[in-house]
Write a structure and sequence with these properties.
Layout: H1 10-21, H2 24-36, H3 40-68, H4 72-80, H5 86-119, H6 128-139, H7 144-162, H8 164-193, H9 197-204, H10 213-226, H11 233-238, H12 246-274, H13 283-296, H14 300-334, H15 338-360, H16 373-400, H17 403-412, H18 417-442
Helix pairs in contact: 1-8, 1-12, 1-14, 2-10, 2-12, 3-4, 3-10, 3-12, 3-16, 3-18, 4-5, 5-7, 5-14, 5-15, 5-16, 6-13, 7-8, 7-14, 7-15, 8-12, 8-14, 9-12, 10-16, 13-14, 14-15, 16-18
Bound molecules: phenylalanine.
Length: about 450
């Protein structure tokens, strides 16, 4: 086998990992969940989740990848010499695949809305009801979402085809600063041209009474999902890293990801509130509420295009990471050449994408226990697979794997001794305990604690 690909610079690693982390979740989910669940209080809880749980988990995954120099399914065998922990890698790859099956569809929608922003002159004259109708008509259309799905898979496949350094790294180095610049511009514009008080109040006013166990779970799930933890992605990217301080790199990734999520709220809420539009989370926020804002805004077309471009870039750098995790797995574990692996992943994603697309298509809607495939994919990964995967990772790295090797590797990757002392307590005790409590709560064990 040829020499393993590598990222060429630390900036490249950060750009690619932040690219994976910053996605649709940052823009349409985080701000709304924060606004709904205690505003400033939620932000504080979320920040704590990122620092206490997200950062150590990120360091763990990145280190496993860097130590093993191979993708998740092979990594555990390579480190331990047996297959007992391979299931963590398998679960990660499986979760990546499930996330992909709905993420690509929504990613495709962003392209449709860039086109619609232009063709309708930024939705001019349309009311919220009309926009809802347009969105429903489009997302359940039996043709257009499928075309955009194909386009998005093709573009992602092309970046992967160009390789780790020339595709993923170079692409992220251009797309991430661009995304950040657009976000900053939209945020400042919102600040200077709107009456921001109502929007900021909804988003930032701290209400600690809203912080219930359920909200804690949401904060934790969101932190893991947002940092792309427990999907094998960071292990894969870590395997392309040869040097640099693992702690600083992961800290920068966590900070940038959180910053973008935070900024998204400062873009969205002032706009939504000053135009008297009801805020919501998920697709409605991006594809109904924001277009309603653009339709009333002077020069809305520029902002509409920029906003959907922002979403498309955020989605693309995330789909790239999901896709790469699978391609690398097929290549490392089964020895399939990257070109063929790329094709296999593309076709597999297209197949499940079409199935999930059908599940939300008005003509062929099929529900499992009252939920669409789309909702199931989201629920199963965020609420179950990611926490369980995170827990298994902590147990492996904190208890099962030779602790001297763990210590030596972390020192080699630039961790300071004082930091290691905190890190290892978090990995061995704090994080597993919190995840177990969260899971128990999910199964209703602490029902009486709620509210
Ligand atoms: N982190 C991305 C987001 O917040 C989603 C994602 C999850 C991307 C897992 C890749 C892997 O939208």
């Amino acid at each position: 086998m040829g020499k393993r690909s590598q990222f060429s610079s630390n900036f490249g690693v950060i750009a690619a990992a932040v690219g994976s982390a910053v996605g649709l979740g940052n823009i349409w989910k985080f701000p709304y969940v924060a606004g709904q669940n205690g505003g400033g209080a939620f932000l504080l809880v979320y920040l704590l989740c990122v620092l206490v749980m997200g950062l150590p988990a990120l360091i763990t995954e990145m280190s496993i990848g860097r130590m093993a120099q191979t993708s998740p399914v092979s990594a555990f065998k390579k480190l331990t010499g047996n297959n007992h922990w391979t299931f963590i890698g398998v679960m990660g790859v499986l979760s990546s695949f499930i996330v992909m099956s709905f993420y690509f569809i929504v990613a495709g929608w962003t392209l449709e809305y860039i086109c619609q922003s232009i063709s309708t002159l930024s939705f001019s004259g349309m009311t919220s009801d009309e926009l809802t109708e347009i969105f429903d008509e489009f997302s359940t259309n039996s043709f257009r979402p499928y075309i955009w799905l194909v386009v998005f898979i093709a573009v992602t496949g092309l970046v992967i085809y160009m390789g780790v350094q020339k595709g993923i790294e170079k692409g992220s180095k251009v797309m991430m600063p661009l995304l950040f610049a657009i976000m900053l511009y939209l945020m400042l514009h919102a600040f200077f041209t709107n009456d921001v008080s109502e929007g900021y109040e909804f988003y930032l006013k701290a209400d600690f009474s809203k912080i219930t166990p359920t909200v804690l779970i949401q904060a934790l799930g969101q932190a893991f999902f947002s940092l792309s933890i427990a999907l094998g992605i960071i292990i894969t990217y870590g395997s392309y890293v040869k040097e640099g301080n693992v702690v600083t790199t992961c800290l920068q990734i966590s900070i940038l990801d959180t910053l973008v999520a935070f900024m998204a709220g400062l873009v969205i809420f002032p706009a939504v509130f000053s135009y008297g539009i009801e805020p919501s989370a998920g697709p409605e926020l991006a594809f109904v509420a924001m277009p309603a804002v653009f339709s009333q805004m002077g020069g809305g077309i520029v902002f509409a295009i920029l906003f959907f471009l922002l979403l498309a870039l955020a989605a693309l750098t995330s789909t790239i990471s999901l896709y790469e995790a699978l391609v690398a797995m097929l290549n490392d574990t089964f020895g399939i050449k990257r070109g063929l692996a790329n094709l296999i992943v593309g076709l597999a994603v297209l197949t499940v994408g079409i199935i999930v697309c059908n599940s939300i298509n008005g003509h062929s809607i099929f529900l499992i226990c009252g939920k669409t495939c789309f909702d199931w994919c989201d629920l199963i990964t965020t609420n179950y697979l990611l926490p369980i995967g995170g827990l298994a990772l902590m147990i492996f790295f904190g208890w099962v794997y030779d602790q001297k090797k763990v210590h030596d590797a972390l020192m080699e990757f630039g961790m300071k001794e004082w930091f290691y002392k905190i890190y290892i307590v978090l990995v061995r005790f704090i994080i597993p305990i919190i995840i177990i409590l969260v899971m128990l709560n999910q199964f209703g064990i602490f029902e009486n604690l709620k509210n």
